Amino acid sequence: MSERRVTLSDIAKKAGVHVTTVSLAMRNHPRLPEGTRQRIQALAEEMGYRPDPLLRALVAYRGGIIERRNTPTLAYVTNWSTQWGWKKVTAHGEFFIGAQAKASELGYKLEHFWLKGEGMSQERLGQILYSRGINGLIIASHSREMGDDLQLKWQNFSAVKIDYFPHQPALHNVTNHQSHIIRLAMQKVTAAGYKRVGFVMHRGWDHAVDHNWTAGFLCEQQHMPLKERIPGHIFPEPLPVERWFHEHNAQVEVDEKLFEKWLNRYQPEVLITKASFVQPALEKLGLRIPRDIALVDLFIDRADGPVAGVRQNHETVGGLAVEILAGQLQHNKFGVPGIPTTTYVEGTWYDGDSCPMPAVVTARVGLRKK
Description:
By secondary structure, the protein is of the alpha/beta class. It folds into 3 domains: 8-65, 434 Repressor (Amino-terminal Domain), CATH 1.10.260.40; 73-175 and 316-345, Rossmann fold (3-Layer(aba) Sandwich); 178-312, Response regulator (Rossmann fold, 3-Layer(aba) Sandwich), CATH 3.40.50.2300. Helices cover 37% and strands 16% of the residues. It has helices at residues 8-15, 19-26, 34-47, 53-65, 90-105, 122-131, 178-191, 203-208, 212-221, 256-266, 275-284, 314-330, and strands spanning 73-79, 109-114, 136-142, 158-162, 172-176, 197-202, 233-235, 270-273, 294-297, 308-311, 342-345, 348-350. The strands form 2 sheets. Strands 2-1-3-4-5-11 form a 6-stranded parallel β-sheet, covered by helices on one side. Helix 1 (8-15) crosses helix 2 (19-26). The longest helix has 17 residues, at 314-330. The chain is elongated, with a radius of gyration of 26 Å.
């Protein structure tokens, strides 16, 4: 016969407290003092207590079918120069759409809070959220120049971050898998027969994702013969930082003269980049896609367009952030985690006329001017 399962009542009897106190302690409920929670949790571990997964599933099921009188609210916190400026950037707008859809699906309301609003500060935001009983936060769309440290009374909140900024505190994080995305693109073009693969990226975009674009490029490049490896064209130059750190314009363009110099020197057969970043310069240089050079866009926003590339599935990022946050709230996990985790969302490859497969490469010497 199997051993009898240790129950909450058993723990309560040994601890000398009510079973409700044990229940709250096992769910990390902030109503209990931290010392009480730790003492009861240690006793439960010593006694060999293990939660019943079937009972937990039943509680979650009942919570999903029983209508709540007041829909709980999750905060979607942004820190941008304008209240809605982040929506103009494809990734950030789609993060919110995915988060909003998932919140509604799970029975929550998602409300936007802007840290740069009139009279708003980090301290004020914390006070507003706490007074309204909002304890679930999605930290999203924080531009780099707004600071890299968000200080709230984290013991009052459960939070999940979308993307990389701010870096502090180190919260659980959901983001696009940039290194996998560029590796996927490189694997597709090399399998199609392209030999000289050129990577062109704005330095600010690479910096914003902790250099995961260049990390993936360099990693995949190690599988290529030495004679076919082309140095990436990362523009602008590293210094001065002020030249690129604050550039958020999605339509920023590569420097034509530096780009032409790089093209002439390395003669890439295909470019892996952001299409709008290089297309104006290619047109001025008289290069046509894909006749003279193939192109892969790492930032495509539609699956049926003429440009080959990778769609980054931003809505999935937002949805997963809410899903993880809901799980934390269900188990009353508040504060900054001791070991933060990052969940990466992979991209989806789509073929397009801009990059013929198999490769069709036309030899060229120098650039043709219009």
